[in-house]
Design brief:
The structure is a single chain. This protein is mainly β and 105 residues long. The protein has one domain. Helix content is 0%, strand content 60%. The chain contains no helices and eight strands. A six-stranded antiparallel barrel has the order 1-2-3-5-6-7. It is globular, with a radius of gyration of 14 Å.
Length: 105
C-alpha cells in the first residue's frame, strides 16, 4: 500500500482471501468527483514452483473481465487512498511489483 492519490489510467490492486490470497487488478477509467469508474482487468500469474501453492500476479491490460463500475474513493487515516470493491476487498494504487498469491488445495 502506498500514499499515492488515485488518478485516471492508474492500476489498482486488491489482495484478499481467507486461507488463500487472491489478487484482482482494476484500471481507473475516469474520476468523477469523489468516485472512480473502474474496469476489472485480467491477470498473468506465475507459480513459485511445480508443487508450490504460492505465486505472483501482475495485471493483463489486454483482458477485460467485467463491465465498468463506480466506487467511492476513500482516504485512510495513514494517508493512503483506496476504493472498497466489496465488503471484504479494497483496492489500492499498484506499486508495479508482482503481487503475492496463494491457493488452497
Amino acid at each position: 500500500m502506498s500514499n499515492q492519490q488515485i488518478t485516471e489510467g492508474q492500476i489498482l490492486a486488491s489482495s484478499w482471501g481467507y486461507e488463500q490470497t487472491n489478487v484482482d487488478f482494476y484500471r481507473v477509467e475516469r474520476i468523477a468527483g469523489q468516485f472512480a469508474v473502474l474496469q476489472k482487468l485480467g491477470s498473468k500469474e506465475t507459480s513459485d514452483g511445480e508443487l508450490a501453492m504460492t505465486g505472483r500476479a501482475v495485471p493483463d491490460e489486454a483482458v477485460l473481465v467485467s463491465a465498468r463500475f463506480r466506487r467511492k474513493i476513500h482516504k485512510a487515516s495513514w494517508g493512503s487512498t483506496f476504493v472498497q470493491i466489496t465488503p471484504y476487498a479494497y483496492a489500492y494504487p499498484w506499486d508495479g511489483q508482482p503481487c503475492r498469491t496463494s491457493c488452497y488445495a
